[in-house]
Amino acid sequence: MDRLGTVAEKIRSKNAGPFCLTIDIFCGSAEAYARVVRGLATAQVAVALGTNGEALRRFDMPDLQVVKFSLPRPEVQGSIRDRDMHGASWAALLAELEI
Amino acid sequence: MVRVLVPSGALGLNYDKTALARGIAARPDIIAIDGGSTDSGPAYLGQGVSKYARASTKTEWRGLMEARAEADVPLVIGTAGTCGTDSTVDWMLEITEEIAAEMGTHPTIAVLRSSQDPAAMAEAFAAGRITPLSYAPEVDAAGIAACRNIVALAGAEQVAKALETGADIVICGRTTDAGIIAALPLVRGCAPGAAWHGGKIGECGALCASNPQSGVILVDVDEEGFTITPLADGAHATPRTVSAHMLYENNDPFILHEPGGHLDVTGAVYTALDDRQVRVTGSRWVPAERYTVKLEGARLAGYQTVLIALLRDPHYVAQARAWADEIEGLCTEKAAARLGLAPGEFTVELRLMGQDASFGPLERQASSAGEIGVLGIVTAGTQALAEEIGRILNPYLLHHPLTREEEQPTFAFPFSPAEINRGPVFEFCLNHVLHLDDPMDAFRLEVIAGG
């Protein structure tokens, strides 16, 4: 078991407009990509992000060696309960997952 | 072929002057730069103000006006002043006229306004001409009428109308990021898929290349595809950096919705021309049956007062969450009783910086911090009320003990007064589209003739 953040080259998260978040896992090699695709369950990601599996969209992109997740923002950007205006920190929750 | 020079991802982020000079020497047909985004939150739209300093905006805009005069091509800014309301368009126009006067020039300026009257939008909603997109918040006509500001996002059609006036400088209210880049190539008959895809890839300047901070790139669009050329020393575009940009701030990496249709890049082919330039073909534009423009709206969500305290005592650092939860409960109860408030009329929240401020209950890491910053956030219907509740919170943050038996503790406050009034806070309340018979129906174009 390794942390996703050490297997992938880079993980970034960002708003996709005020109502969505998107998280890109750049694997950096065919080997790492294969390992992430095989080892990272969508359900596991949904639990980490506190969302349900149906709301979470997943894109496996072999050409770019990227696995991308998009989801409705848990709190709308800038609303009273939102903690992260730019959606900058969400990548950390995935980086800390064990695969 | 139409050559679009993009100086950076946004006016206010600065650009590489040497690279800009290279771009001007390459004889572009237009200079296009974005001026805003929703990314910094609802306050800018709510207040109708720019995020960036006026001095930064003026310095960078002057550089672009000088470059424009040298190249003798149009200069267009989209989403002027962060949010693209009429007030920020006026702000940008004032800066432009000030610079023109200082330069001793008299450019013709076209202004495209995107602000919408909330009352008229409430009527359009009631008439079924405003429909929700995915994840749209619940809203009704009264909620729309209560918006402080609503803007419609102009696309390529409206920017093209502004360019048709022959203006030297075009200042746009809210526009889509890709629309200002796609407009001229579309007018000149380039492939629509290439124009829009080039617009999306180019919208953040050199973010689609290595050395992303350098900003300046060329987007060359033709009848078959487009070519990306970063211009700073050591900046390289590769098929990977270019194709990866479709991921950026985009929910679906293959589809981009724009006014009048959507871009589909599923079949796009990215080819390295050399170690610096990338050619893209195979992007497809799919026209929509109905012409719609997206709306953004911000309304008042209350007023806030915040307080900051620091926990350094290891006993309290170790039990910070329990301590904070207890204070939230006690303060909420006391404020309701002393001010005669119902539970829904205000909120008191404590976030623990160094422990759970980023994710709250979703945080899985155990904190190893030696100190914890306590951010107390009070939200209420008026500033006076938020401050009053902040003053009820103050003594808890200063002295609240974990147990009755211990000596009264005191925690560190960095400021006096401890209460910091944040003023009004806003919330985004629209993720909807407005249906239009003619693309210009929701927009207003004005030309200020030069000499």
What does the secondary structure layout of this molecule look like, with pairings?
The complex is a heterodimer of chains A (99) and B (451).
Chain A: H1 4-7, E1 10-15, E2 20-26, H2 30-39, H3 42-49, E3 57-61, E4 66-72, H4 90-95
Chain B: E1 2-6, H1 17-25, E2 30-36, H2 42-47, H3 54-71, E3 75-82, H4 86-103, E4 109-113, E5 115-116, H5 118-126, E6 130-132, H6 141-145, E7 149-152, H7 156-164, E8 169-172, H8 179-187, H9 192-202, E9 217-221, E10 225-230, H10 239-244, E11 255-258, E12 261-264, E13 269-272, E14 278-281, E15 284-287, E16 292-311, H11 314-318, H12 320-339, E17 346-353, E18 372-380, H13 383-399, E19 420-428, E20 432-435, E21 444-448
Parallel strand pairs in B: 1-2, 2-3, 3-8, 4-8
Antiparallel strand pairs in B: 1-9, 4-21, 5-7, 6-20, 7-16, 9-10, 10-14, 11-12, 12-15, 13-14, 16-18, 16-19, 16-20, 17-18
Helix pairs in contact in B: 1-3, 3-4, 7-8, 8-9, 12-13
Structure notes:
- The complex is a heterodimer of chains A (99) and B (451).
- With 99 residues, chain A is α+β, with helices and mostly antiparallel strands.
- Chain A has helices at residues 4-7, 30-39, 42-49, 90-95; strands at residues 10-15, 20-26, 57-61, 66-72.
- Chain A has a four-stranded antiparallel sheet.
- In chain A, a hairpin with a 4-residue loop joins strand 3 and strand 4 (66-72).
- The longest helix of chain A has 10 residues, at 30-39.
- In chain B, the strands form three sheets. Chain B has a ten-stranded mixed sheet, sandwiched between helices. In chain B, strands 5, 6, 7, 16, 17, 18, 19 and 20 form an eight-stranded antiparallel sheet that branches.
- The longest helix of chain B is centred in the C-terminal third of the chain and has 20 residues, at 320-339.
- The model of chain B has no long low-confidence stretch (mean pLDDT 96).
- The interface between A and B is large, with 37 and 41 residues.
